[in-house]
From TrEMBL:
Keywords: ATP-binding, Nucleotide-binding, Transport. SUPFAM superfamilies: P-loop containing nucleoside triphosphate hydrolases. The lineage of its organism: Bacteria, Pseudomonadati, Thermodesulfobacteriota, Desulfuromonadia, Desulfuromonadales. It comes from Trichloromonas acetexigens. PROSITE patterns: ABC_TRANSPORTER_1 (PS00211), ABC_TRANSPORTER_2 (PS50893). The keyword Endoplasmic reticulum does not apply. This is ABC transporter ATP-binding protein. Residues 4-230 form the ABC transporter domain.
Amino acid sequence: MSLIKLNNVGKIYPLGSQQVVALADIDLEIGAGEFTVFAGPSGSGKTTLLNLIGCLDQPTSGSIRIDGRETGGRTAREMADFRLHHIGFIFQSYNLVPVLTAAENAEFTLMLQKIPKTARRRRVEELFAALGLSGLEDRRPNDLSGGQQQRVAIARAMAADPRVILADEPTANLDSQTSEDLLRLMRRLNEEQGTTFIFSSHDPQVIHLARRVIRLKDGRLESDRPQSPAAGT
């Protein structure tokens, strides 16, 4: 069974007296453990599609199922609860809380899930070790480099073992070497832990390392092709 299934999904935004078709007729299935990128130019619909899968917005038409659960027709509170327990997010602007330490930022989702503090800290210590962040637990975001902040964001996204992690232009604010290092790190986590990653990006580095490239153009699927593991080596 597919982890994510979209059936005839469309999204229309009102713009004054006009309507903007952001997505149309999207039929798509994504399996567990995939490392996939939605690629395309600005305005192609890739971020809108990521937001719909992430339950940050709802489609105008069609249906979306994640892990067998229908996401449509939910209240804002129900969508927030679904995101909390099933989806991890990595944003291009990191979205770390500046007054919290790196460890506290990484624990944030677990805290919302009311996981005991000892268990939260143990999980974050494990992730920081895997992500090369050991020793930085007590630093605040402003005392970290851009790459370190994005690693903390990855730790936060992975802390609760979500079914899928969504990353919107995760390399946009990073230099090319830091971007490549982080992408290879995420691919290693995908391979070793089976975490499903879906990216929205026009960055050639992201596209190169993806195992599946889904291209969008003018709100429609233009192509969908797998890439061999050798493509990222």
